[in-house]
Design brief:
The complex is a heterodimer of chains A (317) and B (231). By secondary structure, chain A is an alpha+beta fold. Chain A is built from eleven helices and four strands; from the N terminus they run H-H-E-H-E-H-H-E-H-H-E-H-H-H-H. With 231 residues, chain B is of the alpha/beta class. Chain B has a six-stranded mixed sheet, sandwiched between helices. A four-stranded antiparallel sheet of chain B has the order 2-1-4-5, covered by helices on one side. The chains are: A alpha+beta (317), B alpha/beta (231).
């Protein structure tokens, strides 16, 4: 029986199914076969990398946002503390300080905290009703100041000292500097984690690209022999890794956003945002920034794979 | 005397695989445009190794090698794909891509060369029809017989209208009628200007075509009686 007869007799087999539509109009498979079993683990690892990258980016943004809010509040307010040997001295000092404050340009609002409020702050430690019996508590005046006044407090400080000898002015500079320093540390840590995740994505991509080349050695060899350039093969590998990376990155982004929303709900349910904890709500612009993390993961994965393939092929004939 | 351009020229070339003794030694031969050579010799004599050097799968370990007038041993790596595209190879073991259909395998050289599909779709279909696989274009190699795979490999080698055709036992898996058709095709392409080297054990085929013969024995190339142009 001739080949042609054999073919006719067998007719079309299951393998004759048209390939899915692609670059060839008749329908084509990608030049490198779908990873199959190898693709799923790679997608999973990239999803984890993307998840961690989004969380690192979210930490960076939340710390930045919280520090900005905290320092802004600290910078817009100053505190006047009035000490005295007796409650009467303190009361007189507060009245004098309030007159100076109300008479000063740039003071937007001045509120003297009552002795009762001050005592309430210490009651958890000294017991209810005991505070005034043990201590002469200094009075606190919270002042909202204009930026111009905030930048030049010397005159006000001198006038307060002259009018109320027990009064002292705290511009919160010490707290502001410490908070800014802590925020910078937090941001640096989050950025460091983000860079580490990108580094890990690079390493995984290098490993996977090399393994992929080894597994597809015969295909790569045939492509070379029919005249494919290294750039052509590298572009195919890059395309493959980009698709796998995009799939993993989207999964990681979705998981991270879900985790952040749940964390935000938990913090709010515990009244966290009212207790000096950062507000974990994600604004629109924050989500946009977060999307850059999986995109970065995806691009790093694809570009690393391309460079790895080019480097590996350059060592061959 | 053929005065065509040089397609292949070896000067005392040798090929050794790693630390092993040379598989091919002191190869000196020239193939010009429009020439046809059979390559014969016992199994393991080095026929496939010689073809591999020509289609730039292995670099000679000594001597000199020119391909299409260019020094292939000194050519930068980036220049090799363009040289390879001018060669059509029918591999002994076919080397089809298993995840591609017959059509995609045949179209592969055009695709890697960046040719638009509109420009080669008809050529690919025509070639597959010519080799009797017009109704198997969407078949994957795993579902093809050995002969069918060989015909797909043949179509892939010819689709880009190469200047040099290398065929390693191209009729080994096909019936005599198809074998004869394939050889006639090589002869026709040769008449159109392509240089052809066919490695084969089939001495009957060699005699029936009546083209010059290069014989490899003990890693050296010799000319059989009547072979012209070699060396």
């Amino acid at each position: 029986m001739t080949q042609a007869e054999e073919t006719k007799k067998r007719g079309k087999s299951a393998g004759d199914k048209p390939a899915r539509r692609g670059l060839f109009r008749r329908g084509t498979a990608p030049l490198l076969p779908e990873a199959g079993a190898a693709g799923a683990p790679l997608t999973a690892v990239i999803a984890v990398m993307s998840f961690l990258a989004v969380l690192a980016m979210a930490t960076l943004l939340i710390v930045n946002h919280a520090a900005s809010e905290w320092t802004s509040a600290l910078r817009s307010e100053i505190t006047v503390q009035v000490k005295g040997a007796s409650a009467e001295d303190i009361s007189n000092g507060v009245e004098a300080a309030m007159r100076v404050l109300n008479d000063t340009d740039g003071v937007l609002e001045a509120t003297a905290q009552s002795q009762k409020d001050s005592a309430a702050l210490l009651e958890p430690w000294l017991g209810e009703g005991n505070v005034e019996a043990f201590l002469t508590i200094p009075a606190i005046i919270e002042v909202k100041a204009s930026p111009a006044l905030r930048d030049n407090l010397d005159l006000l400080r001198n006038r307060l000292a002259a009018a109320a000898p027990g009064a002292s002015l705290d511009d919160h500079a010490r707290w502001h500097d410490r908070l800014a320093s802590a925020a910078r540390s937090g941001q640096a840590l989050a950025f460091g984690v983000f860079l580490l995740v990108m580094g890990a994505a690079c390493a995984i991509s290098i490993f996977a690209a090399r393994a992929g080349l080894a597994a597809n050695h015969e295909i790569v060899s045939v492509l070379h022999l029919v005249g494919a350039t290294d750039a052509f093969i590298a572009a195919e590998v890059q395309r493959r890794f980009f698709i796998l990376g995009l799939r993993g990155a989207l999964i990681g982004l979705a998981a991270a956003l879900a985790a952040l929303v749940l964390a935000g709900l938990a913090v709010r349910a515990g009244g966290g945002a009212d207790n000096f904890l950062p507000d974990l709500r994600l604004g629109g612009w924050m989500v946009l920034w977060l999307v850059t993390a999986p995109i970065a993961t995806c691009l790093v994965t694809a570009l690393t794979a391309r460079l790895t393939v080019l480097n590996t092929l350059s060592k061959q004939y | 005397m053929n005065a065509g351009k040089e397609i292949v020229r070896f000067e005392k070339a040798g090929l050794a695989y790693e630390e092993a003794p040379e598989t091919l030694s002191d190869i000196s031969m020239t193939l010009r445009e429009g020439e046809f050579r059979f390559l014969t010799g016992p199994s393991g004599a080095g026929k496939t190794s010689l073809l591999k050097m020509i289609y730039l799968a292995h670099k000679p370990t000594r001597g000199r090698f020119f391909l299409f007038g260019e020094d292939a041993m000194e050519a930068p790596r980036e220049a090799l794909p363009a040289l390879r595209r001018r060669i059509g190879v029918v591999f002994q073991e076919f080397r089809l891509l298993d995840h591609f259909t017959a059509y995609e395998n045949v179209a592969l050289p055009m695709k890697v060369a960046g040719v638009n599909q509109n420009q080669y779709r008809e050529d690919v279909s025509e070639l597959l029809n010519w080799v009797g696989l017009g109704d198997r274009m969407d078949a994957k190699p795993a579902t093809l017989s050995g002969g069918e795979k060989q015909r797909v490999a043949l179509a892939r080698a010819l689709v880009s209208k190469p200047d040099l055709i290398l065929a390693d036992e191209p009729t080994g898996n096909v019936d005599p009628a198809m074998g004869e058709r394939i050889m006639k095709l090589f002869v026709e392409l040769n008449k159109l200007g392509a240089a052809v080297i066919v490695a084969t054990h089939d001495l009957h085929l060699v005699q029936s075509i009546g083209k010059p013969v290069l014989r490899i024995a003990n890693g050296k190339v010799t000319r059989s009686a009547g072979a012209g142009g070699a060396g």
